[in-house]
Amino acid sequence: MKKIKEWILGICGALLGVLGINLVIFQILFPAPKKRWEQDTCDCALVCGFHAMEDGTPSPVMKKRVEKAVELWKERKVRYLLLSGGAVANSRVEAEVMKKYALELGVPEQYLILEKRADCTYRNLKYGAATMKNCGFADCAVVTSGWHLRKADHYARKAGLRYVMVRADEPVEEGVLTTLRRYGETAVTMYRNFWKGYY
Fold first, then answer.
1. Angle at Cα 118 formed by Cα 141 and Cα 100, nearest 5°?
2. 13-22: pLDDT as tens digits
3. Which residue of 5, 31, 82, 87 is surrounded by the most CB atoms within 10 Å?
4. Which of these, 26, 88, 24, 33, lies nearest to 61 by C-alpha position?
5. How far apart are the first and last CA of the chain?
């Protein structure tokens, strides 16, 4: 019995050691998001897309991201909203749904710029950076969910942007467990993709 306990403790210790090593590697590969504003305003808020509902209305996550971007615009912290996202989970183009919602929240159409091709976070930032360049924008506030900040931050750095990360609130209707699950799934995806050579 004593040997079994020692064996179990040894296995648990080894697993915790492996987990700890991988957490350290993750922190090195994907450092904490850049959330400190270095200036008062940015040229635009680059809003990362999230799927719309089948009926064309914004999903709770999308709503919160757009609401945060609109808040920045109303506070004059950004001049334009760059809404990024194609038709990913369904036939609804995310950027178009976000535009409609931003209009409802009071942002005039001339301050809304759409990027409608992106089908993932990597392309949100890649195509967003290209759109910014075409518009003559020098910097941006990347707006996304808390569980998505680290991933978007990684790609913002890869895209060579001058940026600050801005966390949108989590939808109340989704609950804490859903938010925690999203944190876990996003971290696992990032780590798996790194070892697959996608970064």
1. 70
2. 445 544 545 4
3. 82
4. 88
5. 47
